[in-house]
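Homework help board

Subject: predicted structure for assignment chain

Our instructor gave us this sequence and asked us to write out the predicted structure in C-alpha cell form, then describe one feature. I got the C-alpha cells but I'm not sure how to describe them. Can anyone check?
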Amino acid sequence: MHYMSHHRSHASLRKASLSLLILLCLAAFQVSLPPCGDQRPTTLSQPWAGADKLYCLERVIQAGAVGAVGYFQATLADDGSLYAVVPYRGEVHHLLDTDADGLPDTARTVLNNLPFPTAITHHNGQLWLGAGESLYRYDIADATLTPLIEPSPHRLTGGIISGLVVGADERLYAVMNADRECSSTTSTLTSFDLDGTNRQSVIGGLDYGADLALVGNDLWVAQPEHDQILQVEIVPPHAEPCPPLLQAENTATYHFPAGSAPTALAFYPHDTFPNLHQRLLVGLRGNTGEVVIQGYSVVALDLAHADGQPLEAVLPRNSPHLGISDQKMTIQGSGIYPHHVYDVVVSAQGWVYVVVGGGNIYALRPY
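My C-alpha cell output:
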C-alpha cells in the first residue's frame, strides 16, 4: 500500500507538471503572435474588416493553381490544422502551419482522384468526405481511406453530398442532393452510423441544400437557391426512407435578400469575439450577372430573435464614418467580390476561417 501511494503521488506530480507545461506553451503561443499588421506580410487591408478593429484579417493561403473555385469546404483537425476539398481537382489538401505563427500557410495534397469532393467534416481524428455520390472516411493517423457508400454501376444509391456534420448522438448527418433513393429533383437530410451503415432519413422533400451546422439539438441547413436557411429539430428518424418535408410548425426559416445565396454555416460558441457569441455565422455565396450585387460576405445571425432582425456584417465590414455604401465598397474592390464565399470554419480558440474563390482562405483573429 505504501508503494502504491508513493506511485500515485509521483503520477499526480507528473500530471500537474504536464498541465503546467501545456499552459505555459499556450501562454507563449498567445504572447508570440505578433500584433495585427506588425511586420506580418499576411495581414490584409482588403477586404475591409472594419475601422473598429474587432478583427485582424490575414490571408492563410492563396493557391491560384487550384482554379477559379479552388477550395470549397474546409474543416479543422484536433491539432488546429485545416483540411480542405478541391472539387475540380478531386483532391483533399492538408494546410499546415510551417512557420509556427498560429496560422496554416502551406498546402499538402493528402488525397487525389476523388469524384468531385464537395463536403468534409472532422470527428475524433477522422475525416468524412462527400465526393459526388460517394461517402468516404479518412483516418488521419493511418492515412487510410475507406469507401463507405459508392454508387452501384446498375443503380445509383444516393445523391450528391453537399453537407456533413457529426451530431452529439455519434451519427453522421448529410445533405443528399438529387437523392435518387427518393427523387431525382429533391434533397434529403439523412443520418448514418459513422461507418456509413444504418441510413435513416430525417427530413425529405428539400430543394437544393448546401452546408449544415449543428446548434444544440437543431440542425440548420443552407438553401442557396431559395436565399434561406432552414432549422430542423433532430427527432427520432422516420421509418420510411423518403419522408415528406416537415410541416412549418416543426421548422424555422430565415430569409435573406434575393441573390444572397447562403451557402456556408458555422455556429460561434466562443467569447473571443463577444459580438459573435452564440451567433450563427452565414457565408453568402453571392449572385452572378445582376446589376445590384448581393451576398459575397459573411454575416452573423442572432438565433434568439425572429426573422427580420438586422444582420451583423463580419466580412467585409464597412465603416459608416467613411460615407461609402456597401455597393460602392464592393465595386471599388474593398469587399470579397468577385470571389464567391464557399465556407466558414470556427477554430477552438475562436478564430474564424473564410474560404472564398480563387484558392483563397482568410482568417479573422483578435486585433
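Reply (TA_rk): Your C-alpha cells look well-formed. For the description, you could write something like this. Helices lie at 2-32, 326-331. That's the kind of observation they're looking for.
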